[in-house]
Amino acid sequence: MSRQNNTRRRLVILGGGFAGVSLIKRIDLDHYDVTILSPRNHFLFTPLLPSTTVGTIEFRSIIEPLRKSRRGVQFLQGKAIALDQGARRITCENPESHAEFTVEYDYLVIAVGAWNNTFGISGVAEHALFLKELTDARNIRERVISCLERASIPGIRQEERDRLLHFVVVGGGPTGVEFAAELHDLLDEDLQKSYPHFVGKIRITLFEAMKSILSSFDEELRNYTVEHFKRQEIDVRLETPVREVCIDRLVLKSGEEVPTGLVVWSTGYGPTGFVASLPFAKQKGRLLTDEYLRIAEHPEIYAMGDCATAAAGAFPQTAQLAMQTGKYLAKALNRIAGGKEPAPFRFKNLGMLAYVGEGRALAEIPTVNVQTSGVGAYIFWRSAYLTRLVSFKNKVLVVFDWLKTWIFGRDLSKF
Fold this sequence. Notes:
Blueprint: E1 9-14, H1 18-26, E2 32-38, E3 42-44, H2 49-52, E4 63-65, E5 74-77, E6 79-84, E7 89-93, E8 100-104, E9 107-110, E10 115-116, H3 124-127, H4 134-151, H5 158-164, E11 166-170, H6 174-194, E12 203-207, H7 219-231, E13 234-237, E14 242-245, E15 249-252, E16 257-259, E17 262-265, E18 269-270, H8 273-277, E19 282-283, E20 286-289, E21 294-295, E22 298-303, E23 308-310, H9 319-337, E24 352-357, E25 360-365, E26 370-374, H10 375-388, H11 392-408
Parallel strand pairs: 1-2, 1-9, 2-5, 9-22, 11-12, 11-17, 12-13, 20-23
Antiparallel strand pairs: 3-4, 6-7, 7-8, 10-18, 14-15, 15-16, 19-20, 21-22, 24-25, 25-26
């Protein structure tokens, strides 16, 4: 990838998440003409997304415009829909106008992430809410407030009121657990002021098809979370798969029907339509790469983040992996441009964090062999996420949001 006739090579990056943004922050623009394509025009700090569903943090506090990500990098709003690897051309579609356009590349980086996995269960796409994008968080916040307002109408049947006041989370991974915790905080801390007649009447249930929640965490931390949720009166139902989602209830595989006003679906991710359409080798829907993040037989195409996995060993679908792959690939491409061989990618597990409500969190840090929970882990959780926010502006806004929530409570306006 060395310079030829003083011409920069065209580097096209598909995806504006952690992987793509980490790459463009460090790529050498003297050697590469960089274009980043994404269907959304902002970077989203997804680890704090559950906090926005209840107003602990405001929506704009965790986004950063991709056009401001780095001067000299071109941004195009669009999603990839087809790849012609022979002509080295990507066909894209603008999500606003649905107009199609093409972008040519010398080197391509696929970092399009993954999409919500419904496992083919009937009614999920139609009646459940996901939690992956900022629009998802806004929809959840509006649904929660709508249920509370509808349940407040005089003369409503008790069965209907009970249904509206039952909030369900399907999936016991970090996102589902953190949303349940944030929702509990909203109801526990702000309900008495805005809806005092509902105190003690609202239920939160978390359904998990496997034998435990937070399966990637240490067993002691998983057990701590279950016991902590019991104290918060969050009902955790393990080994309880869902068969169908209806407009007003869940139907479990056992045949039991569970009336509910809200279903948040958080059962993991599957491949995007673009990744599924690619004729490359995959493992569980993720693109297989070599130790340099390259697609086999196509050394000009790289894949990283949630949409890819190494043939030598699977990596977790986490923000820290995406950030590490982005940083690595920028360094590798810079070395190639300088005529040097890059080293293989090595994932360094920096640990996992999860918020579990009432000012408590989990922290598992293998580099120092620490597994901890409680208030200390919560302080570490907030500090770690604060340092990872991409801009000083976001750091200030998030701190202000936390302070505002602590002093004034959460805003339960619906607009």
